[in-house]
Write a structure and sequence with these properties.
Blueprint: E1 5-8, E2 15-17, H1 19-30, E3 39-46, E4 52-59, E5 67-71, E6 74-78, H2 80-86, E7 89-94, E8 101-105, E9 118-119
Parallel strand pairs: 2-7, 3-6
Antiparallel strand pairs: 1-5, 3-4, 4-9, 5-6, 7-8
Length: about 120
């Protein structure tokens, strides 16, 4: 299901990245200028119709409390607060006519909205 995972530091990985998602992130990173210093940051932010929303972007700055994991050729970083909310969650990528794009399946979410981008 997921690429080989290496967790850096003593903190356990909080999110699982499937091979398909890792491959797509690697493709997108290759298109970015200065990609050698970039990683995927995944987080949770207040907002959205269910209370919280997922946030994903390329970043180059690490905080001392970040949880860093490596999936294949990519580094995924989650801030400590988001890590607790994403524990056991899976980031996947689907390519097709329906439901194309990145999707997070979060077993800790009690409720999700219809669009799948927010939860509580």
């Amino acid at each position: 299901m997921s690429a080989s995972t290496i967790t850096i530091g003593k903190k356990p990985s909080s999110i699982i990245v499937t091979d398909a998602a890792a491959k797509k992130v690697a493709e997108l990173l290759a298109q970015e200028e200065g990609s050698s210093s970039l990683f995927l940051r995944v987080g949770v932010r207040p907002g959205g119709c269910s209370g919280f929303s997922y946030d994903m972007f390329f970043d180059s700055e690490l905080a001392s409390d970040d949880v860093v994991s490596v999936f294949g050729d990519i580094k995924v970083v989650v801030d400590e607060t988001s890590a607790a909310m994403l524990k056991g969650a899976t980031l996947d990528y689907r390519d097709g006519l329906q439901e194309a794009g990145f999707h997070i399946t979060n077993p800790s979410a009690a409720k999700t909205c219809g669009c799948g981008s927010s939860f509580s």
